[in-house]
Amino acid sequence: MTVKVIGAGLAGCEAAVQLARRGFDVELHEMKPQKYSPAHKYHGFGELVCSNSLKAARPESACGLLKAEMRRFGSVMLEAADKTAVPAGGALAVNRTEFSDEMTRIVKSYPNITVISGEVTEIPAGNAVVCTGPLTSDALAAKIRDVCGEGLSFYDAAAPIVAADSIDFSKAFFQTRYDKGEADYVNCPMTREEYEEFYEALITAESAPLKEFDRPEESAGMRVFEGCMPIEVLAKRGMESVRYGCMKPVGLTDPRTGFRPYAVVQLRKENREGTMYNLVGFQTNLKFGEQKRVFSMIPGLENAEFVRYGVMHRNTFIDSPRHLDRWFMLRGSDNLFFGGQITGVEGYVESAASGIIAGRALADRLSGRQPLELPRTTMLGALCSYISDSSVTDFQPMASSMGILPPLDRIIKGKQERYAALAERSLADLDRALEDCK
Predict the structure, then answer these.
(1) Total domain count for the chain?
(2) Distance of alpha carbon 188 from its chain centroid, rounded?
């Protein structure tokens, strides 16, 4: 039997491989290189456009736990990431180009996956997984709206990247918070006076006009997902907003003074060679000239060479609680599944995870089996429950979070100890569920 997967992003690649491993012939449709979305530039599969980080690796963190669960399913994204990782302290970060090339190689290595290039403009009738991403082409988006209604939109922003050799290390220094892991982060410390001057420049800087495809409906207004909020938007919430966010100085010591700075800008490796660094948490929609002016006020970046300026683009997603079940299948359809950010999961890892679940569930249904019931105590199960909870009336995108897991049956006061116990329970419950379904 032949099944279709639309889109060769993270979710689409995961879905295609899950189906191929179970013996199905897969037609993987990808519109690149014939056509690119406004945010994509590279021809390979699984292109990362916002950041090179797949977040924390430790299982007692939310995204680390999600990755540990995905490894139980043979995640192709994590297979590629492990081979193309760059140093990033306690995070899993990759060389973007090498990662995309490895994803492409792995997917194309399956003889029962046929890649078909070109834009898809109709929704398959069934036996398909649609993973067309947050910038689904207009023609297909119109068909999805016919099925799912107008849906919602929010705005996603990317951070600037600077050349490593343009950073002034007489001011900047290497350190990881609390010295956990390798000191892979560059830290640019600020005094109170420097922070206040920077803050004033940031909140008064001029933003770039949105491109036509990024403009919201006039009646809808702008919806910005918290996890990707432009730093200038966050800063306007108050003087301390970014100092308690991406510029928090906790766990760091300025070697010039021997004390904790008032505020810190952290930079993370963009590639394995360490020739480029991105400004962590500095997603922005400021005009390029304004980015140069304002971000050059950061100590250590006065003469920084900006390899890429920050950009902002639109994401769209389905009102999933109304339309999708816990396996990402369109309710009432003939095995039509969706995967990726269009379902309302937020983040690279979460998008890939949804593709795993959708692809596996489609394979199970076509094989006459009940799809795996993911325990609600797992991060995968909690995300699936969130996007399919019909009681939700104002649906918003959700990233992995320990807060969406059911509480433990005992009280553990320390947060790290509590998170470790939640992770231990999640993995144990998932292992039992996988064993039971063999």
Answers:
(1) 2
(2) 25
- Taking the C-alpha atoms of residue 363 and residue 156, their distance in angstroms, rounded to an integer, is 32
Whether the CB-CB separation of 47 and 40 falls below 8 Å is answered with yes
**Do 140 and 244 belong to one domain?**
no
Which residues are bridge partners to 224 per DSSP?
A: 155
Q: Are residues 110 and 238 in the same domain?
A: no
If asked whether residues 186 and 256 sit together in one domain, one would say: yes
Over the chain (438 residues), what is each successive 10-residue block's mean pLDDT?
96 98 98 85 90 90 96 98 93 94 98 97 95 86 82 70 93 91 89 98 89 47 62 94 95 96 94 83 94 98 91 80 95 95 92 98 97 96 92 79 88 89 97 90
**Burial zone of 212 (CB within 10 Å; 0-12 exposed, 13-18 middle, 19+ buried):** exposed
CATH code: domain of residue 285: 2.40.30.260
The CA distance from 80 to 8, in Å, is 14
Give the strands of the sheet with 25-30, arranged side by side: 113-117, 25-30, 2-6, 126-130, 334-338
**The pLDDT value given to residue 414:** 86
Domain C-terminal end among 250, 282, 313? 313
Same domain, 126 and 166: no
Together in a domain, 251 and 361 = no
pLDDT of residue 222: 45
Both 326 and 340 in one domain: the answer is yes
pLDDT for 66 equals 98
Out of 267, 298, 313, a domain closes at 313
In a shared domain, residues 233 and 367 = no
| Dist CA 347 CA 61 (whole Å) | 15
**Residue for token digits 């005992």?**
410
Q: Are 103 and 17 in contact (CB under 8 A)?
A: no
Q: Do residue 70 and residue 141 come from a single domain?
A: yes
- For residue 227, the enclosing domain spans 157-313
Q: Are 315 and 347 in contact (CB under 8 A)?
A: no
Is residue 432 within 8 A of residue 367, CB to CB? The reply is no
pTM: 0.76
The long-range contacts involving 221-226, CB below 8 angstroms and separated by at least 24 positions, are 222/155, 223/152, 223/153, 223/154, 223/155, 224/154, 224/155, 225/154, 225/155, 225/156, 225/315, 225/346, 225/396, 225/397
